[in-house]
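Complex 285.
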Amino acid sequence: MIDAKVKITLPYLFEKVQRGEPITWLTCYDFPTACLQEQAGIEMILVGDSLGMTMLGYDSTLPVKMDDMIRHACAVRKGAPNVFLVGDMPYMSYQPSNEIAVLNAGRFMAEAGCDAIKLEGGVAMAPRVRAITDAGIPTIGHLGLTPQSVAALGGFKLQGKSAALAKTIADDAKAIEKAGAFAILLELVPDRLCKIIMERAENCIIMGLGSGPHAHGQLLIYHDMFGLYPKFKPKMAKMFGNAGEVILNGLKSYHDEVKAKAFPARENWFGMQDTEFDALKKLLG
Ligand code: KIV
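Predicted structure with 3-methyl-2-oxobutanoic acid bound:
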């Protein structure tokens, strides 16, 4: 099932950027999906704390714990041994102090075999980025719509619409890059802001999610791509297939066939030879 493939490394990603080839990045939280994503040639996987909503059914990402993240990241690594695997630092796993941030980032590397971590925040989080990169852990920043601060941001909506707010995001990007981040994810910012941040970046890969076509690569939430999240579908997400509908129809057919005694059919069970069956009856008296 899993193809023997080239291991995706940091130099590989920078070479792609040099060649002007966009990088593909998706969220993933489980083994079978990871197998499929690696087979499809996806280069980066994010084990996002969005798993709190997509997999665990919470209303936000805030209740997600490090142990949840590690368990899912381990499963994904087993299914996709060659992708560039990014562990997403959950709420309060890095905000309190540099020491806490380094210890938790280290867990992604040591326990789950991640290649990098991602954390949300700008200037205020630059010391965390510096501490984690100084510990030898490749780090990705996340700016724009940052779901862990959704209450402060006023909801899931476009960020950096005004010149003043756009400048704050551009300044945040510079601070995170200077602190050592090798990449920054811009989520839901205007395309022209994304382009400016790319042009100002010196040695930093700029990835986009709902931020236009200019970025060095694109991230999408897997569940949004395939109609697998029942609560809402963000406008920025394109649906590449309706797996949710396929599964629902399959479930309804199963339900109907069991009710109608059409399943299981003869090919779905195993029989027993007459001699063995007679012997069994004797043994049972
Ligand atoms: O947790 C996640 O999947 C994320 C994306 C929303 C970028 O951080």
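The first strand starts at residue 23 and ends at 27.
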